[in-house]
Amino acid sequence: MTFGSPTPAAVNAPLLDDFSLEMTGKDIRALEESAATIPPGTRVNVTFLGTEAPAVRLAAARTARSLGFVPVPHISARRLGSRREFEEFLAALRADGACDDVFVVGGDPASPRGPYPDALSLIGSGLLERYGVRRAGVSGYPEGHPAIPEPVLWSALRDKDRALAARGLDGDVITQFGFDAHAVLTWIAEVRGHGITLPVRVGVPGPAGVRRLMSYATRFGVGTSTSIAKKYGLSLTNLMGTAGPDRFLRTLADGYQPELHGEVKIHFYTFGGLGATSRWVAAFRKESLA
């Protein structure tokens, strides 16, 4: 993979300050091995996979905290079977000192397994602040969602923004990943046009194999037209190759206007592995600041 030469915009834009990473419960060892390459205080999101027990997610959050990072446990609304299950998870997070920041999302199941159909219902429950949560992240979809109409997405984002404010909770928006930086910037400007001032963390895939990136793109409805792929650096004729987000980040930095887009940061999805992503980010930041 190539890192390229940073443009002046990439050097001056604060997009890579306070970036965040994502991990699963199985990434504990990788996080420990990569800790030296990750800035202290980095936000580390812990996913809520249906294949991982709560104890595994809690162990990941504890590890992130013990290494000097800020754990951001995910809570999947439709995977929760009951209010009791929700409270038990929050109580465990509080006991571990890992409850300040969470990320709430509807989740993959088509039907809720309990009383919570979406992220808004988690926020509206009042349980987050009761158990010490101070910030709750929510999802954003710059290229839409394959199963949710766009008007519904906008309504949901506005409702979550208002609900967070009503509950006295800080928040941010973490976007689905994509390969088109211009589409992301246009969407963020629309977010601000809707009166939503929450910080936006732009979802970016860490370096990974092209085949894997294309597979995730298909799964999540992310555009991969020939022109978009070429701009990003994806070779559709060499699926065995790898690609990093250096071109995407420089394009994003070049088009970023604080007065229009507000507070914007980067969130790295670790499709190619937590270790590979953290090393890539460290090298790219060093080169960009050189």
**Mean pLDDT across all residues, rounded?**
89
What proportion of the residues is helical, as a percent range?
A: 40-55%
**What is the string of helix and strand elements?**
HEHEHEHEHHEHEHEEHHEHHEH
What is the number of E strands? 10
Radius of gyration: 18 Å
What is the makeup of the main sheet? 8 strands, parallel, barrel
End-to-end span in angstroms? 19 Å
Question: Which percent range describes the beta-strand content?
Answer: 15-25%
Instruction: Give the overall shape.
Output: globular
Decide which structural class fits the backbone.
alpha/beta
Number of helices: 13
pLDDT < 50 runs, ≥5 residues: 1-12
If strands are numbered along the chain, what order do they take across the biggest sheet?
Answer: 1-2-3-4-5-6-7-10
Structure characterization notes:
This protein is an alpha/beta fold. It contains 13 helices and 10 strands. The protein has an 8-stranded parallel beta barrel. Helix 2 runs parallel beside helix 13 and helix 8 crosses helix 11. The radius of gyration is 18 Å and the shape is globular. 42% of the residues are buried. The N terminus is likely disordered.
In short:
With 290 residues, this protein is of the alpha/beta class. Helix content is 43%, strand content 17%. Helix 4 (83-95) links the parallel strand 3 and strand 4.
List keywords for this structure.
globular; 13 helices; alpha/beta; 17% strand; eight-stranded parallel β-barrel; two-stranded antiparallel sheet; disordered N terminus
SSE inventory with pairings:
Layout: H1 8-12, E1 20-23, H2 28-34, E2 43-46, H3 54-66, E3 70-76, H4 83-95, E4 101-105, H5 119-124, H6 127-130, E5 135-140, H7 150-166, E6 170-175, H8 181-193, E7 200-205, E8 208-209, H9 210-220, H10 226-232, E9 242-243, H11 246-255, H12 258-261, E10 264-269, H13 274-289
Parallel strand pairs: 1-2, 1-10, 2-3, 3-4, 4-5, 5-6, 6-7, 7-10
Antiparallel strand pairs: 8-9
Helix pairs in contact: 2-13, 8-11
